[in-house]
Amino acid sequence: MKVVTMRTFLLTVAILTISFFIVLFQGEWSLLSFVNVTFLLSLLPLMIGGFLFVYEQGFFNSFAYGFRKLHKSRSKAERYLAELQGTSAGQPIHPKKFAITYPLLFSGLTLVLLMIAVGYAIR
């Protein structure tokens, strides 16, 4: 849990730093432009982290299993050959686990919610 917290913090600081430099190079510095750029940049890790979370939970396993089974069952001869070789489409695949999933998800969500709150506060 400590590693996830540290990675989340570093990713959040990196997004804030990148946002600062983008606003700085735009030429017009204002809090509203910083909030807008940070909000848009934080959507990217939120979407990537959300996709990885859904993938890790096995949502796409049934689709991959169905396509493998469809591909393997083209003819009886191919099915028999697969049985003899010991390769079967009967085993569902297990998704990989990624170490960056939760830091991406948490930093993106934190910054999105924070920028929404700050955006309403400065209006």
UniProtKB/TrEMBL annotation:
InterPro entries with a match to the protein in the record: DUF3899
Leader sequence segment: none
Record field: transmembrane: 6-25, 32-55, 100-122
Tagged with keyword Transmembrane: yes
Residue ranges annotated for the DUF3899 domain, each copy included: 35-119
Domain of life: Bacteria
Protein name: DUF3899 domain-containing protein
Source organism per UniProt: Parageobacillus thermantarcticus
